[in-house]
Amino acid sequence: MRQIILIFAALCGWTWSCNIWADCNVTVGDAGFGSPTSKIVREQPVTTSGAGGIVCGGNLGFISNRWIFSKSESAGPFELVNQAYPSEKIGFEVYTDAGYTLPLTTQVQEFSDFSVIDFGGAKEGIPLYLRTIPGSNVRAGRYVGSIPVRWYWQVCQGLGVGQICLGWNTSPGLVTNCILGICYKPEELGQGAVGTINVELYVTKDCQINAPNIDFGSAPLVGEFDPVQQRIEVQCAKGEAYSVGLSDGNHPVDGVRSMQKIDGTQAIKYEIYKGNGTTGERWGNTGSERFDSADASVNPGEADGLNSQAYRYTAKILEDQSTPSGGIYQDSVVVDVAY
Questions:
Q1: Which parts of the chain register pLDDT below 50?
Q2: Are 193 and 95 spatial neighbours (Cβ–Cβ below 8 Å)?
Q3: pLDDT (0 to 100) of residue 338
Q4: Based on the number of CB atoms within 10 Å of its own CB, is 279 exposed (0-12), middle (13-18) or buried (19 or more)?
Q5: Contacts with 260 (C-beta within 8 Å, 6 or more apart), sequence order
Q6: Same domain, yes or no: 192 and 221
Q7: Residue 300 contacts by C-beta under 8 Å, 6 or more apart in sequence?
Q8: Cα separations (Å) of 174 from 149, 152, 216?
């Protein structure tokens, strides 16, 4: 014993870390996936990491052995649940490594080689790594879940070298495996202690818009241009009711859209009408001029998150105007979606 004490004394003179004591405690950890769009959640995995429901601090026994184990209390599947619509769920997986190759299961796994379990430093949580499972077509909103994890540990709470320690900190029920003061990996882990990871994800509203350009072609007189009938397609997050608006363009005159000649000297008035244009209902960006999703030409109603809703329109060059000089006339109209 005298020789061991001398060794410890030498170590304490060499580094401050052997003056720090260590222990582990279960706690409530947090992991957040951020705020991905519904499209991202549906099409690709979202990853994050968070404290795994246990914190260990201090030196954990300078250059001494330590053993930490864990297992999931649930066989899964792990799910995040929409707080406003409980039937809306997003599956996710939990891993013990940053490479997402070692899933957390109900089988006991050892964490002793984790770099966070190292000598020196303040208390830190042992991380777990989470990844959503693509394929969920869900509403926007707040999704939460929790993971109960059972932890077992034997760490040096005092001075230690190798397999020798002057004070072990152990989880409930763990039986140390020591012979003549030299300790080995424990075989009887006991009941351990359960920590919890609270998980959160906010799915944000999003829409994809497909709006092809309008090309009136060429004609010698303004009265000879044919109307152009096309449609704008919008795909929004599941469950969303919205409206689609069109701006007045870059060169409106008294509330009427117009295309301007490239040199800016002349203009041609035109308009965009809802549907086939027979009703003369202008498609604009305020009030009743907007196009509601309930009135969509194809798939009317709330968005389903998967299928596009189409909005048919007719673009016409107005005949009650003089024919300007020849040239290229252009305008730019902004398409907007409002929830």
A1: 1-21, 59-62, 115-122
A2: no
A3: 97
A4: exposed
A5: 250, 251, 266, 267, 329, 330, 331
A6: no
A7: 293, 294, 309
A8: 16, 7, 81
Q: Are residues 192 and 215 in the same domain?
A: no
Query: How many domains is the chain built from?
Result: 2
Q: Which residue, of 203, 234, 258, is where some domain finishes?
A: 203
Using only C-alpha atoms, what is the Rg of the chain? Answer: 33
Q: Return the closest-CA partner of residue 324 out of 274, 268, 276, 250.
A: 268
Cβ distance 150 to 192 under 8 Å?
A: yes
Report pLDDT for 140: 97
Q: What pLDDT was estimated at residue 194?
A: 94
- For residue 305, the domain's CATH number is 2.60.40.1090
Position 20 scores a pLDDT of: 38
DSSP assignment, residue 61? S
Same domain, 59 and 46: yes
Domain that holds residue 85: 16-203
pLDDT of residue 238: 96
CB within 8 Å of 138: residues ≥ 6 apart: 38, 41, 42, 82, 88, 89, 90, 203, 238, 305
Q: For residues 138 and 59, is the Cβ–Cβ distance under 8 A? A: no
